[in-house]
UniProtKB/TrEMBL annotation:
Keyword annotations of the record: Membrane, Transmembrane, Transmembrane helix
Protein name: Mechanosensitive ion channel
Domain Mechanosensitive ion channel MscS residues, every copy: 113-169
UniProt signal peptide: none
Provenance organism: Halorubrum aquaticum
Single GO MF descriptor: mechanosensitive monoatomic ion channel activity
Location in the cell: Membrane
Record-level GO cellular component terms: membrane
SUPFAM superfamilies with a match to the protein in the record: Sm-like ribonucleoproteins
Gene3D superfamilies according to UniProt: 2.30.30.60
Species lineage: Archaea, Methanobacteriati, Methanobacteriota, Stenosarchaea group, Halobacteria
Residues passing through the membrane, by range: 31-49, 61-85, 91-110
């Protein structure tokens, strides 16, 4: 039987060996985090500037959504790489796989919301579908009051405001185009 003092001394020695072996990995990990922080901030600033030029005024929401999605992917990659650097590669691989399955389940559960958002992006980019335009969609005729990422608000001729999911509108709608010759001075 091993005496307790030698057992404690052996355990303490093993613990200190593990700590000393982990210090270089931890320092490498923290240096990586510092560099990754600066890099991600610069990349996101460039992306935000580029997307900000494409999506202005009432379309800023689309740009903000794109920047947020890019930021989530970048930071997730940083987290997985950090885990790999500090010697937890198996945890990083498991975490990446688990998040993939969770994302698959969430995307399935939110498929209609995602469909609304994608349709909203298309509607926001469409030059023939803007606030103030008269449209007909799903049996509703009126003036577009607001276009949001998930919903569009249409004011009917009867004074009602109809809120419709973008996926219902984007699939089939018509635009009332005023006669170009009337009042344009082109006789």
């Amino acid at each position: 039987m091993t005496p307790i003092p030698s057992l404690l001394a052996g355990s303490l020695a093993d613990f200190l060996d593990g700590v000393f072996a982990a210090i270089p990995r931890a320092l490498s990990g923290f240096v990586f985090l510092g560099l990754a922080y600066v890099t991600v901030r610069v990349v996101l600033a460039l992306v935000r500037t580029s997307i900000g030029r494409l999506y202005v005024d009432d379309r800023e929401l689309v740009g903000d959504l794109l920047v947020t999605v890019i930021a989530v992917f970048l930071w997730f990659g940083v987290a997985l790489t950090f885990l790999k650097i500090v010697g937890m590669g198996d945890i990083a691989a498991s975490l990446g796989t688990a998040v993939g399955f969770i994302a698959l389940g969430v995307s399935y559960a939110l498929s209609e919301m995602i469909e609304d958002t994608v349709a909203g992006i298309y509607l926001l980019k469409d030059p023939d579908f803007n606030p103030g335009y008269r449209v007909e969609a799903k049996g509703v005729t009126g003036t577009v009051a607001a276009i949001e990422l998930r919903k569009t608000r249409i004011d009917t001729d009867g004074g009602d405001r109809i809120v419709m999911a973008n996926r219902e509108i984007e699939s089939r709608w018509t635009h009332d185009v005023p006669d170009a010759g009337v009042g344009s001075g082109n006789d």
